[in-house]
Amino acid sequence: MRFFFVFPLIVAFSSVRAAEPVTRTFYVSGIECGSCVYMVQQSVAETKGVQDVTVIQIIDGYANVTFDPAVVSDQQIAQAVREAYPLHGMPYLATLKLSVTDYAAKAAKVEALFAAWKDALKLEVIDKAKGEVLVHFLPLEADKKKAGPQGWRFTQLVEAAKKEGVEFKLEREGE
């Protein structure tokens, strides 16, 4: 008799799917040596919800991070980069590189979208003609008692942008 009661519960809970992991490329400033790579990689890898991280030091340092967006936000990952022990005196800082389709015609809408998150990030326009922008993350004070993602998420931007007719693409998405 217990089997008939427990079996429907097992079926019900097994049909609840976790969010699909996503991979983002965060550009990281301040990486000067192999030890810097290790410090950033270790800090991000210890972040709850991160499944894989690879930090690379070439002309531009970057980290490919695979994570569960239901557990951790883009800003929390950027904060983990910032919290890595700075070996050369300056903190490591993570940014996202985005391209905006038809930026010249939609610049005001783009700026308005980012104004909503002025306490979480700062937008830097790199090339207006190509629509290239950088997202700089401001420090995040996450509530350690709160479960789930905190701070800004790229998916929030995509959802808000759809309503405004603006399209954002991540540079090197999914590498």
Describe this structure as you would to a colleague.
The chain is an alpha+beta fold. It has a single domain (22-170), classed as Alpha-Beta Plaits (2-Layer Sandwich), CATH 3.30.70.100. 34% of the residues lie in helices and 26% in strands. It has five helices and seven strands. It has helices spanning 2-14, 34-45, 74-83, 103-115, 154-164, and strands spanning 22-29, 50-56, 61-67, 93-100, 121-127, 132-137, 168-170. Strands 1, 2, 3, 4, 5, 6 and 7 form a seven-stranded antiparallel sheet that branches. Strand 5 and strand 6 form a beta hairpin. Helix 2 packs across helix 3 and helix 4 packs across helix 5. It is globular.
Radius of gyration: 19 Å
Judged by helices, strands and strand pairing, the structural class is: alpha+beta
Describe the main β-sheet briefly: 7 strands, antiparallel
What's the CATH class, please? Answer: Alpha Beta
Please tally the helical runs, counting DSSP H or I stretches of 4 or more residues.
5
What is the domain tally? Answer: 1
Shape: globular
Helicity, in percent? 25-40%
CATH architecture identity: 2-Layer Sandwich
N-C termini distance: 50 Å
Instruction: Please give the number of β-strands.
Output: 7
Overall pLDDT confidence: 88
Beta-strand level of the residues, as a percent range? Answer: 25-35%
CATH topology: Alpha-Beta Plaits
* Unreliable segments of 5+ consecutive residues: 3-16
Give the SSE string. Answer: HEHEEHEHEEHE
